[in-house]
């Protein structure tokens, strides 16, 4: 009898165990970059999802009496949202079933391309479109662009200034860049770059937003791809030298990668394998002849980069993606900039479905290309998250379940395997980029701001002006995101009160049904996700200039002596030196720092941190750099040698950081 009961309880879990066994025995031992391994794994997950969808339709939707009740309408509404989510996941699985790494191809092409005489190398124009960015942002990009490792007579740097600033003109003349203006700001960024095309003549156009610094080898790695005459654009990933507000506000700066790594590290490379990669604007290079064929940068959408790819596809040109770090830029520095940026991407993506050269009506596109460029992810991701959020609350307050319920065992048998398969797939495909709780919380946090953008973009796609993401000095606002926080608080209150009311029999709004058990777990999980999401609403102050981790031997010279040290951190205005013993320096003392590969610096001691357990003593110092010395420091720090990648997720540190933020005293969590 006991054995029968055990079998009865464990039987519904058999499909989930099968999913786990597949990933444990097979997938985790397969090379995840191989197409055959990806295809089999994605096909397996798709089969699990189709199994769930068939059960969902035939057993929990169709049997519902067509009585026109709220429960009937709600059941079908939730199912249609699930269908949209399934379509989005289907496209994701198709895309991710392939991947390509073009680094070896780039190396092979580079050797051949640069074996030719210098006179035969093509000319390049570097465009830096700018509107309102301050000098502390622009100087890094301009100086970095001028330092590109390419014959100096073969490239020019154009600063396309749509604010017509005299001080920027003077700065460009001093540095050797070409300052370009126009009489109006028509068509925003696309119009600005089209004006740049009129005054330049290079065979190729490299584009860097005002806050992105190209690495010195950018042209050496990207230009050789254009030996293939069908290539119109080469796109590279966008990496950042500062922490985005999500990382910072959750106190996970050191243990959680920035939000865009999933796309640039994994999805973009997979799209390239299918020849449906697309231009992301900055950190790309385009063939001028291809731009001439499509009439310049399209300005029908506020995301001119995506539309440029579609317009080139219409004419037979492809976009290539080289997944190498070849530039660094500024991530959105606060939540205001974060939502301005995401809102522009979302609206621009949705606008394309209404355009004559978009995925639905654009000439020359294959059916596969049309489907792959549909903005389905923008349309569904926030809608789906919102429905996931409200389903248990609706049930707890009205008794309307999202399905014509058959039993808890059926949900365990059909729905749990889908969730397990999806989470395990994401962990397998993106081992350093995904953790369910944090990823769900970030998506939920964004939903309250982004879902209205989705709805308004569908109803009225045009008429909203192009908004530049605010960055740099003057953008130090660390506001509390009251709207999102109180939206989150509202749904926490509604969900928790719904649970409390239904615990008391006299107050209960629902009958005795098995879905009550499922809804209780669902509601509790939603509350946990919402609590983590609420933490993102509290802006934390962060430095304007982020420091780079270094390990440079140095001599620290005072008026009386010289001490050997290692410089372990540097920015454009401060640094940290490490000493084997107390150097005997005091705050306010003047020092000179001599390094082999960096400019010599005259600075001031700010403070010392004594070493623990015979550890090194750290000295903090500040300095002011000007002229050639400052330019040299920009080139050393920002053009290729230093990075701040998070190579792997430290799961224990993530949990520790979230616990510290939820129940600690605030501040930053340091796992070290």
Automatic annotation (TrEMBL):
Q: How does it sit in the membrane?
A: Multi-pass membrane protein
List, alphabetically, the SUPFAM superfamilies matched: Nucleotide-diphospho-sugar transferases
Domain called Glycosyltransferase 2-like: residue spans: 126-294
This protein's GO cellular component annotations are: plasma membrane
Principal subcellular localization: membrane
Give the subcellular location. Answer: Membrane
Q: Which residues cross the membrane?
A: 6-27, 39-59, 71-95, 386-405, 411-429, 441-462, 482-503, 515-536
Listed EC numbers: 2.4.1.12
Entry GO MF terms: cellulose synthase (UDP-forming) activity
Coiled coil ranges (UniProt) are none
Superkingdom, natural source: Bacteria
Task: Name the PANTHER family for this protein.
Answer: CELLULOSE SYNTHASE CATALYTIC SUBUNIT A [UDP-FORMING] (PTHR43867:SF2)
Q: What is the recorded name of this protein?
A: Cellulose synthase (UDP-forming)
Write down the species.
Methylorubrum populi (strain ATCC BAA-705 / NCIMB 13946 / BJ001) (Methylobacterium populi)
